[in-house]
């Protein structure tokens, strides 16, 4: 998931602060998610999926292997 968050953020030309504010978390917390030092709660995972307009599966699962965690 950590690489997907970075890719999605960069694809949308956003800063970590932009995303953190949108999901109502601190920039520090979002940064930790992005580098894999923290795992999001289900509520945060839904907020991220909603913000990026992707499914939870797209955030957590490798589409190439369908159900393999990234």
TrEMBL record:
Q: Which residues form a coiled coil?
A: none
Which keywords does the record carry? DNA-binding
PROSITE patterns assigned to the protein according to its UniProt record, in alphabetical order:
HTH_CROC1
Give the matching Pfam families. Answer: HTH_3
Chain ranges of the HTH cro/C1-type domain: 5-59
Q: Read off the CDD domains from this record.
A: HTH_XRE (cd00093)
Output the Gene Ontology terms for molecular function.
Answer: DNA binding
Q: Which SUPFAM superfamilies match?
A: lambda repressor-like DNA-binding domains
Q: Where are its TM segments located?
A: none
Protein name per UniProt: HTH cro/C1-type domain-containing protein
The organism of origin for this protein: Clostridium diolis
């Amino acid at each position: 998931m950590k690489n997907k968050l970075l890719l999605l953020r960069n694809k949308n030309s956003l800063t970590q602060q932009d995303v953190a504010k949108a999901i109502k978390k601190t920039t520090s917390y979002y940064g930790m998610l992005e580098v894999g030092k923290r795992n999001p709660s289900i509520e945060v995972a839904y907020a991220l999926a909603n913000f990026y307009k992707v499914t939870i599966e797209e955030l957590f699962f490798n589409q190439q292997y369908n159900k393999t965690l990234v």
